[in-house]
Amino acid sequence: MEGMESAVQAMEEIWTLILLAGGFAALLLILLLMSLRASARVARAMVPLSGQIGQLGQSVQQLQGGLQHVSDTQATAQMQMVQTVEARLTAVQQHMNDRLADNALRQAQSMAQMQERMQESLHGSSKRTVTSLTQLQERLAVIDKAQDNITKLSGDVLGLQDILSNKQTRGAFGEIQLFDIVSKALPAGSYTLQATLSNGKRADCLVHLPNPPGPIVIDSKFPLEPYEALHRAESRDEKAYAIRQMKAALRAHIAAISEKYIIEGETAEGALMFLPSEAVYAELHANFTAVVREGFAARVWIVSPTTCMATLNTMRAILKDARMREQAGAIRAELGHLYRDMERLGERVGNLDRHFGQAAKDIAEIKISAEKAGHRAKRLDNFDFEEIQAERPGQIVPLEP
């Protein structure tokens, strides 16, 4: 039984193999048929493809011929382009050479001109340098001269300090400054220097003003020592002492001028005290106003060089006005003479006008006569005797009796 089963199984396996082999053979047959059909379709499709391939070969040949022609044309064009470029490069090189030669020539000319200008500039600079050195020497000479003047001025300043350190020489310095200002501000004859009054006192200057106010005295005072002491003071006590000394000196000067130079009926009711220093005058009006008011009360007016010049100019105007009043009669007489001279001038101008009128009338008549004579001469020149006979028939003598 087991043998039969084994045989049956073997048969089954054999049939199975046979069936598999038959299926495989059928599959191969089917694949072969399909391959043959595909080969037939491919053969049918290859027929027009081969035609197209032939046409493509022809097109390739034509394209190859066109490419050869294009290549030849391109080669020819490249050759022409190379020749053109070479010609242009030659022309450009020639132009560049010409430009370089021209630039070299211009640079040479510019260098020559620059050398000439540099030579001229150096020559001018040398001239200017010589001139500057000459001017510098002249200025150094002027500086040396100024230095000498400064040295001399320093000596003069030292001399001035020596002068101001002495009371007498200081007074003389103030008088000289006062005389200089008065001589510049007032006309000669309107003042007297070192005038002696009726009380025997001598004033530095007496200005002859008309009444009122009358002659006025100007006296020079210079309280330098109290002023310097005031400025040298350092402590409060020294400064207070210097202020007392300054006030005492000013009050003494004011009292002396009021007593000596204000004389009733002879001089004006006031006098001037001249301070030859603007610094002292400024100090006085800045810190000693009470003393200035005391001077006003004593009719003594304190002036500096500047205010003295202004005061003297006012006096000059007063003197001018007084002289104008003195000369008023003479001026009126001269005006009368001038009026009569103007009357005579008017009469003579009228006579001259009449003469000119008569002369104009005579000239007009002479012009009329000249025109008539010219007209007659013209008619005689044209032989217009009939017109002449018509004008004067009785004065023409006939030729026949």
Summarize the structure.
80% of the residues lie in helices and 6% in strands.
Structure description:
Among the domains are: 167-326; 342-391. Helices cover 80% and strands 6% of the residues. It contains 9 helices and 5 strands, in the order ααβββααβααβααα. The protein has a 5-stranded mixed sheet with strand order 1-2-3-4-5. It starts with a helix and ends in a 10-residue tail after the last helix. The model is unreliable at 155-166 (pLDDT under 50).
Tell me about the largest β-sheet.
Answer: 5 strands, mixed
Principal-axes shape call: elongated
Q: C-alpha Rg, in Å? A: 71 Å
Strand order of the largest sheet: 1-2-3-4-5
